[in-house]
Amino acid sequence: MKEAINFNNVNFSFDSAAVLEDVSFVINRGDFISILGPNGGGKTTLAKLMLGIYTPNSGKVLIHDKSPQHTRDIIGYVPQYSLFDPNFPVSVMDVVLMGRINNFSIRYSKNDKEKAEKAMEDVGINDLRSKPYSDLSGGQRQRVLIARAIATDPQILLLDEPTANVDAAVEYKMSAMLGKLQKTMTILLITHDLGFVSELVNKVVCVNKKVHIHPTSGITEEHIRELYHDNMKIVRHDIKEGTI
What we know:
Order of helices and strands: EEEHEEHHHEHEEEH
Helix content: 25-40%
Number of helices: 6
Distance between the termini: 36 Å
CATH topology: Rossmann fold
Number of domains: 1
Shape: globular
Strand content: 25-35%
CATH architecture: 3-Layer(aba) Sandwich
Largest sheet: 6 strands, mixed
Number of strands: 9
Strand order of the largest sheet: 5-6-7-3-8-9
CATH superfamily: P-loop containing nucleotide triphosphate hydrolases
Radius of gyration: 18 Å
């Protein structure tokens, strides 16, 4: 399979404090990846290296065989937090169209508007298109940010803690939505939630300064204990009722 992301002996530090050490792994195109790890373990740093916001101190990062600085247009990024002025009169459609801004131009073409409409349809928020963004619930805002990201026609979708402020019902809907999006793009999901979209994820990247990648079926309680330095148990979602 063709590679989507390749980290080769990457090291990164802030001043003299090491954040990531000797990181090497490959993610293939079409993979659905969950990136797990404790706070401060390097998950967001890993994402910013992929986005070309940070540059490794040593080693190499390749996105579709190119440097991240030349592939920003193929990654749709959904940040954990989106700061905005609640008094600013911006609609859902306005926010999604921001994903089509190119070279700081805010003149949207017919194609831009069609892409925004398609993105809202894909995430199920077409009925909210005219509502003020500030009036939305946490789960609705997350869908808007995902629509903004996929309006760019990305080949890779990178989401940072998309379920941080939503309830279980919203998580379920988001899981179904991401399952549909996986058919057309590589998805990377940074999360603390060990159970979220577990049935969709095919590999897990464990990050705590060092990085290890496992198939979902290969994750054990020992791996989680080493990652979080605590006694934790895995909730299994692949066991059918009556088989326990």
